[in-house]
Amino acid sequence: MMKDLPLSKVYQLLEPGPVVLLATTRRGRANIMTMSWHMMVEFEPPIIACVVSNANYSYASLRATKECVIAVPARKLASKVVQIGNCSGREVDKFQKLGLTPVSAQCVAPPLVAECFANLECRVIDTRLVRSFNIFILEVLKAWTDPAQKRPKTIHHHGYGKFAVDGEMIKLKSSKP
Amino acid sequence: MMKDLPLSKVYQLLEPGPVVLLATTRRGRANIMTMSWHMMVEFEPPIIACVVSNANYSYASLRATKECVIAVPARKLASKVVQIGNCSGREVDKFQKLGLTPVSAQCVAPPLVAECFANLECRVIDTRLVRSFNIFILEVLKAWTDPAQKRPKTIHHHGYGKFAVDGEMIKLKSSKP
After folding, report:
1. Tens digits of per-residue pLDDT, A64-102?
2. Is residue A155 within 8 Å of residue A75, measured between CB atoms?
3. Under DSSP, is residue B14 helix (H, G, I), strand (E, B) or coil?
4. A-contacting residues in B 25-84 (Cβ below 8 Å)
5. For the whole prediction, is pTM greater than 0.95?
6. Alpha-carbon separation of residue A56 from A46, A150, B18 (angstroms)
7. What is the ipTM of this complex?
């Protein structure tokens, strides 16, 4: 079961640069893609920028529906994350193929991914850079975390299926969020 | 000594989400800030988006000069990275304060940071989202890496000086860059 995450804490999930999944829905059919090109833009309400190439099947859904879910997978999903990135929603139902569980979101049509430790329900709020750079600006409307996944380690993509897994956590004195 | 890095490999440095330093120069004076809000936008020529808040001293330099260097620090610089983020170029010369070495860049006025294992010389190519979101779009003109720093571990910010250091590297079969 997913639990509310305060919107003020959303940046702490994405700022470290984990690979994420992006869920969209079009004509009643949900799809997911793997995404590493995203960044935080504002703390609260949380605003995120991401790149969804016009070569991706998800691009048309995102443009048309202006809704998505960003789901953050932990280390144990690494193999599925890669498989999701190496097939297309044009040909397969990825939730079914990968054995992932779609869960109804509260504010948007695309589903949460039950196996991910965090899920962010997002709405597209700016498309000015879509044509030039495939950059979408998203506002996070609602955030969820899975309390059963303690201290999940995320994965960071270095290209062609090579990932750095979160290692040692260090804490230095800082007043900056 | 820094060595050329092919522009086609730049995305592999930033896609994993390391904390970076951003160097700017204005009126002959170089400054650096700490930055975690950045993402890749295009492979080659490499295009990067980043958020530089209008509350940051670097904002005015970046807007005015449209040039910067993105420098990627390894784990051993973590303490300096935090200190850089907790003081302002308005009050101090950060290169001097932190004992960092500015090195002349080839294509832009701001300096490389000798202690960082990678340095990217960048030019601002789009400012349409600066007013609304403080988002700058950069093109990488020239990239350098330090061959003396082998397999550097980067750090990923989770807020208030907490970082995940790169841990285990895993390699999964994938055809995707």
Report:
1. 999 999 999 999 999 999 999 999 999 999 999 999 999
2. yes
3. helix
4. 34, 36-42, 47, 49-51, 78-79, 82
5. yes
6. 25, 33, 25
7. 0.97
